[in-house]
Amino acid sequence: DMLIDGENGRVVAAKDPEGLARAMEEVLSSAESLRVMRERSVEMSSRFTPQVWAEGIVRAVSASEGERRG
Question: Is the pTM of the predicted complex or chain greater than 0.90?
């Protein structure tokens, strides 16, 4: 998953404006927690580059071909 609640962002239930406001206040009230969440988001997003994605597809196709020959 791209978002881990409290680690690199906040998860709020759909149609919950009070929860959204609360989460926004929590994140914006601490410059340090905002900095940490931002750093974790950048770190996590590096796992989803086009290069990483392509390598995953190549591994999956190779594994599939190996199973057919197997």
Answer: no
Residue 55 has φ and ψ, to the nearest 5°, of -65, -40
- The tens place of each residue's pLDDT in the chain, 70 residues long, gives 789 999 999 999 999 999 999 999 999 999 999 999 999 999 999 888 999 899 999 999 999 988 777 6
CA separation for the pair 1, 40 (Å, rounded): 13
| Separation between Cα atoms, residue 53 and residue 42, nearest integer Å | 16
CB 34 within 8 A of CB 28: yes
Strand partners, 9: 5
Residue 19 has which token pair?
């929860």
Cβ–Cβ under 8 Å, residues 4 and 43: no
